[in-house]
Write a structure and sequence with these properties.
By secondary structure, the chain is mostly helical. The chain has a domain at about 10-130: Winged helix-like DNA-binding domain superfamily/Winged helix DNA-binding domain (Arc Repressor Mutant, subunit A, Orthogonal Bundle). The chain is about 60% helix and about 5% strand. It contains seven helices and three strands. The protein has helices spanning about 15-40, 45-55, 60-65, 70-85, 105-125, 130-155, 170-175; strands at about 60, 85-90, 100-105. The longest helix has 24 residues, at about 15-40.
Length: about 180
């Protein structure tokens, strides 16, 4: 049973989802500058390249699931990775309908060049924590991520957003009344 705080948060800054977002959004521009400025790769391309290197040949759907991206974004970023020569699509030898994605030699070289730099950024981000606090935070973030995945599959919120119309369904419905 999940623990419930004695008093519900009164301010947005007291809510874990908001704090996680703030931590991500504060560090993200530094990561983007490293990826795009120094290495010429987007964050999305990096996630796909890292998945291809770390988990071996994957189908596009497996790659999308591993990188936590939708298939359309995966397809676009994968096309870009292939154009840059960092990934290849290879037909399955047994079933020609299946295509596997794998990192090329230059893609693996890029991954290995970037990984220490990204590890350094992570170290800088965690510099105000003790090593034990850092390990505990990492573990807790993994627990929270697993819980978030379960919430998504359990359809905790069944409402659908309609961003195509410039806002949420709620905002669209409210404007019609």
């Amino acid at each position: 049973m999940p623990s419930v705080p004695a008093q519900p948060p009164v301010h947005l800054a007291e809510m874990p989802m908001y704090c996680l977002y703030q931590a991500w959004s504060q560090a993200s521009p530094v990561f983007v500058r490293l990826c795009e400025g120094r290495f010429g790769i987007t964050r999305r391309e990096w996630r796909l390249l890292a998945a291809a290197v770390e988990y071996g040949p994957l189908t596009s759907a497996e790659l999308a699931a591993t990188a936590r991206l939708d298939l359309v974004r995966t397809s676009r970023a994968l096309g870009s990775l292939c154009e840059k020569g960092w990934a290849d699509r290879v037909r399955d030898t047994h079933d020609k309908r299946i295509t596997h994605v794998m990192a090329t030699e230059s893609g693996r070289a890029l991954y290995h060049a970037m990984l220490p730099e990204i590890a350094h950024l992570n170290d800088l981000l965690m510099a105000d924590l003790t090593p034990d606090e850092g390990r505990q935070l990492l573990h807790l973030l993994q627990v929270v991520a697993q819980r978030g995945a379960r919430m998504a599959t359990e359809n905790v919120v069944t409402d659908k957003a309609s961003r195509r119309q410039g806002g949420t369904r709620w905002a669209s419905a409210k404007s019609q009344t």
